[in-house]
Backbone:
């Protein structure tokens, strides 16, 4: 109880200061490390700090020094100096584990809210590097980001799928990517956060139609019919195996073609496709009653589902409309419109 | 590649991520724990050792169990990389173990001693920690504990080999962390990296060691307990002969200038002036009283007034490095002064260490070999040094009386006693026949065979009986010169006892009756007879005669010993005083030869900066390799009168080459293309490597072709 009040008092006192400091730091970081699609990291944009273990290691070294001094034992003193020196060498070693990495990120990403998307980041390295974690810097501190950790980064180009969980609908710029490592001995945390100037488009979260309500059904006869036709068409479609593609870091393991892996044919993932067609029309205004977000979600579901089943459709929104079409580009256009709505 | 990426929900920085140990790491953990504990094996109680071993075996068995289990359970991909969970014992059992173990150690604390029980506690915690590695921070703690355990062993042993072993072991402990962070590396590359990093950390550590001020102890620490080694402060006849069988090193000396002759090397350890008829000891000790007025500082400035010495003759400087004796006697030539605050001097001119010498200790001494010790003798001192227990040795007493009647002059009397020793069929031996009740009479008149303390004791007794103040001095005589490093090693077998008599105007005079019996002992050390005896008596496998005669053994031994000596001198024996001297020397260099000093300093700084910038450089020199080849090619062509003018572009020059030497054109065009690609295009690493390879090949082809042309083989 006491602890709680203390905490609130603490936060009340220091919150404004924290906010100001955070803003300043943010501004400084933006100035120091401007956004760019191609970036390389070096001493200008790498941060390095001892970890808690690093600090305790130094304290422990001091302890050894005291032991050596109290026993007037030069060998122990020499050892404590060696450890201090080792600490400094490891500092450089940890720094060089990140320094010199080059990044390219030319793709924007898009996905549905509440889903995980992967930001493709191409990393080139001139040497082997170890234990580097990639994650997005999230504004909300409460949310812990998903980290993809490369236990070993090979020489040459590597494509890394940095996971990003979409929480907010819309089209906005991607946050900074945090590239961090404690490689070496855990004594130092080396990190940098880079802004690749890429956009993320978060489509509304797809929600299936679940109206058992009869009044709703009556009110929107026209829509229902189109929806029904859509439903029936959807039922006819079976997931059909389409093709195998080579595995990209970050893809779900459930889609990995394990048989191929076991046969030593490399890491492949299965991709599916539906083959069916019907004329569908989705109209925002003729949807059953619901909040805008809800309606968008329904539309999102409809578009996603028909796209999955390779069906053509047209879309009408209050501010714009898309004529009947088919294909990936069309789907993307419609979904983007939903995201921006 | 895909296996290298792992996605975790938690952030990287959290130490609380659940930890699973790969197989390699787990074995390294067990092995390193074993080695760390082994460094302290001499200090640890057998019970603890059994416990530590049992803990390791238990871990091992637990591992085998989980591995078999996982084999049966699943034969999938994951089973191959099956991580081992170290949770073998439940937490409550570990808690009970920890508490009971601590209680046992506390209970045994009295008999173990403070230091030993602290070490046991440390090792106990280290052993128990192995059972609780669930998080990353546990691994950190384990590594730090391991380093601490290994380091503690240096309190007890500091020889070069052991120290280097422990240093290597300390760095090996970091292998655990390295492996944790880069598990896919091969062992060889990990070890190489570790070796590289530890070598990189050497220079700075050495600079710190030389430069960082040597501090005095901050607080009292529990002492290392061990049996006393070497001379005893209570000497009965027969004692030193026993000691003389030991080949252990007592101390080492390096003289600043010339080493004095063997016969001058009487290393005074202590003066025994109280004889109870059987044994000699220091006056005042018998009653258990401390004569604080008998102790002084040992520096030269207060030597004169307090210690009653007249300093004449040249001073010689030398450094003594004593091996731990767990006593406080120090060894020096008369008359010794030292500037070190932790060394005092008794009024009998013996140096002593303020404390117990529990580890190798070094001190700097300035001795005045010709100084007159105590030109005047106080009444009290005279009384002490004439004191005699008359019951035990009536025959000696009577002889002394007779001598005194014959010789009025003290010097003549002394000479007569020595002549008697010399001509009286006395025999110098390590195996004196036993005498009843340590009777000097029996030795002097009957057995006539003894070691140095027999002669010194009976001589001193005779002197006192004749009314000449005399006392027994014990210490070491001589030492063995190591020609490689020019230092003296003094072994326990060099232990010696001699006598001191006080003569008016001449002060305390050293008289060594052994010299009268066996002059060789004093001049050169052990005679062949004595060596033979020594070899027969000392039951060590590598006896001095057996192996000692083989020259290669001598060579190897002296080499090893020299190495150990340098280590002892410069690392173990590096004192604050030496540090100050070094600073003074450096300052002298800077002030006297300013330009030289500053020049050196400047060069050093430049070199360091250069190295640093080289390191900091953004690996750009990779790109430059092709450019270097291009420039080399230009230089080569220039030799054959094909110079590139500054105004020409690379392509223009290539065309010129094509016109003038078409046979070179193909190769040169390739190099030019690579050069252009490097300069004007962004190359991937792979492309770059290809270009480099091609450029290199063409360069050599070009060179070969030009070489042939020059020899006129080909046009």
Residues:
């Amino acid at each position: 109880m006491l602890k709680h009040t203390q905490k609130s008092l603490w936060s009340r006192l220091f919150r404004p200061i924290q906010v100001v400091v955070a803003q300043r730091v943010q501004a400084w970081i933006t100035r120091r490390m401007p956004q760019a699609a191609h970036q390389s990291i070096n001493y200008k944009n790498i941060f390095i700090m001892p970890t808690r273990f690093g600090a305790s290691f130094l304290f422990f070294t001091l302890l050894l020094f005291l032991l050596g001094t109290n026993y007037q034992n030069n060998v122990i003193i020499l050892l404590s100096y060696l450890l201090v020196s080792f600490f400094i060498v490891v500092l450089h070693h940890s720094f060089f584990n990140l320094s010199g990495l080059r990044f390219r990120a030319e793709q924007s990403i898009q996905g549905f809210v509440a889903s995980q998307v992967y930001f493709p980041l191409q990393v080139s390295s001139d040497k082997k590097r170890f234990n580097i974690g990639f994650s997005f810097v999230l504004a909300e501190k409460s949310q812990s980001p998903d980290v993809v950790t490369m236990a070993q980064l090979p020489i040459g180009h590597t494509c890394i799928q940095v996971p990003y969980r979409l929480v907010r609908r819309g089209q906005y710029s991607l946050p900074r990517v945090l590239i961090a490592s404690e490689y070496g001995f855990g004594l130092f945390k080396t990190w940098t956060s880079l802004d690749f100037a890429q956009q993320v488009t978060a489509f509304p979260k797809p929600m299936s139609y679940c109206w058992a309500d009869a009044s709703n059904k009556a009110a929107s006869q026209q829509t229902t019919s189109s929806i029904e036709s859509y439903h029936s068409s959807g039922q006819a479609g079976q997931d059909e195996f389409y093709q195998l593609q080579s595995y990209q870091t970050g893809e779900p393991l459930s889609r990995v073609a394990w048989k191929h892996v076991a046969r030593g044919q490399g890491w492949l993932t299965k991709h599916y496709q539906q083959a069916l067609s019907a004329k569908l029309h989705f109209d925002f205004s003729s949807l059953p009653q619901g909040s805008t977000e809800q309606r968008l979600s329904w539309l999102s579901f409809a578009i996603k589902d028909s796209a999955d089943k390779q069906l053509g459709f047209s879309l009408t929104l209050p501010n714009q409309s898309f004529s009947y079409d088919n294909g990936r580009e069309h789907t993307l256009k419609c979904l983007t419109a939903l995201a921006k709505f | 590649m895909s296996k290298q990426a792992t996605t975790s929900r938690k952030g990287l920085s959290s130490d609380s991520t659940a930890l699973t140990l790969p197989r390699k790491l787990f074995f390294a953990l067990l092995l390193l724990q074993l080695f760390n504990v082994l460094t302290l094996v001499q200090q640890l109680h057998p019970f603890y050792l059994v416990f530590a071993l049992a803990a390791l075996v238990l871990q091992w068995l637990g591992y085998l169990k989980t591995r078999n289990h996982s084999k049966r359970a699943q034969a999938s991909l994951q089973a191959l990389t099956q991580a081992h969970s170290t949770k073998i014992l439940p937490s409550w059992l570990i808690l009970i173990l920890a508490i009971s173990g601590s209680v046992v150690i506390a209970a045994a604390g009295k008999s173990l001693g403070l230091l030993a029980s602290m070490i046991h506690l440390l090792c106990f915690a280290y052993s128990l920690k192995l059972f609780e590695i669930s998080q990353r921070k546990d691994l950190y703690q384990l590594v730090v504990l391991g380093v601490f355990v290994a380091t503690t062993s240096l309190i007890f042993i500091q020889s070069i080999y052991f120290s280097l072993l422990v240093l290597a072991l300390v760095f090996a402990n970091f292998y655990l962390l390295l492996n944790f962070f880069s598990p896919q590396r091969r062992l060889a590359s990990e070890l190489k990296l570790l070796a590289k990093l530890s070598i990189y950390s050497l220079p700075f550590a050495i600079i710190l060691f030389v430069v960082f001020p040597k501090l005095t102890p901050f607080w009292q620490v529990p002492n290392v307990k061990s049996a006393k080694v070497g001379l005893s402060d209570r000497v009965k006849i027969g004692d030193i002969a026993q000691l003389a069988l030991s080949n252990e090193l007592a101390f080492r000396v390096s003289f600043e200038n010339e080493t004095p002759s063997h016969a001058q090397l009487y290393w005074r350890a202590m003066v025994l002036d109280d004889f109870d008829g059987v044994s000699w000891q220091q006056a005042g000790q018998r009653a258990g009283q401390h004569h604080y007025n008998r102790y002084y500082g040992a520096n030269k400035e207060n030597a004169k007034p307090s210690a009653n010495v007249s300093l004449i003759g040249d001073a010689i400087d030398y450094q003594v490095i004593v091996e731990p004796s767990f006593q406080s006697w120090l060894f020096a030539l008369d008359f010794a002064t030292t500037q070190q605050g932790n060394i005092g001097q008794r009024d009998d001119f013996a140096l002593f260490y303020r404390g117990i010498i529990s580890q190798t200790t070094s001190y700097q001494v300035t001795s005045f070999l010709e100084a007159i010790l105590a030109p005047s003798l106080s009444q009290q001192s005279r009384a002490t040094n004439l004191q005699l227990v008359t019951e035990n040795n009536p025959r000696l007493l009577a002889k002394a009386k007779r001598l005194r009647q014959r010789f009025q002059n003290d010097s003549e009397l002394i000479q007569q006693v020595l002549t008697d020793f010399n001509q009286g069929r006395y025999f110098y031996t390590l195996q004196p026949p036993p005498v009843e009740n340590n009777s000097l009479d029996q030795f002097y008149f009957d057995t006539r065979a003894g070691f140095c303390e027999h002669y010194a004791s009976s001589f001193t007794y005779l002197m006192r009986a004749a009314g000449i103040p005399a006392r027994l001095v014990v210490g070491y005589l001589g030492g063995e010169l190591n020609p490689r490093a020019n230092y003296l090693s003094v072994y326990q077998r060099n232990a010696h006892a001699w006598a001191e008599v006080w003569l008016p105007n001449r002060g305390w005079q050293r008289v060594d009756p052994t010299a009268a019996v066996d002059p060789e002992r004093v001049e050169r050390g052990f005679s062949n007879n004595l060596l033979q005896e020594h070899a027969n008596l000392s039951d060590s496998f590598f006896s001095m005669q057996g192996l000692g005669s083989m020259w290669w053994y001598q060579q190897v031994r002296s080499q090893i010993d020299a190495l150990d000596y340098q280590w002892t001198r410069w690392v173990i024996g590096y004192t604050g005083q030496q540090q100050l001297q070094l600073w003074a020397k450096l300052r002298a260099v800077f002030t006297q030869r300013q330009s030289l000093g500053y020049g050196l300093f400047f060069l050093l700084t430049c070199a360091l900066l250069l190295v640093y910038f080289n390191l900091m450089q953004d690996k750009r020199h990779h790109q430059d390799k092709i450019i270097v080849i291009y420039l080399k090619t230009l230089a080569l062509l220039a030799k054959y009168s094909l110079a590139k003018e500054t105004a020409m572009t690379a392509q223009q020059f290539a065309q010129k080459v094509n016109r003038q030497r078409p046979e070179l054109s193909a190769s040169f065009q390739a190099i030019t293309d690579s050069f252009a690609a490097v300069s004007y295009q962004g190359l991937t690493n792979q492309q770059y490597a290809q270009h480099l390879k091609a450029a290199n090949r063409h360069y050599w082809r070009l060179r070969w072709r030009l070489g042939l042309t020059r020899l006129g083989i080909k046009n």
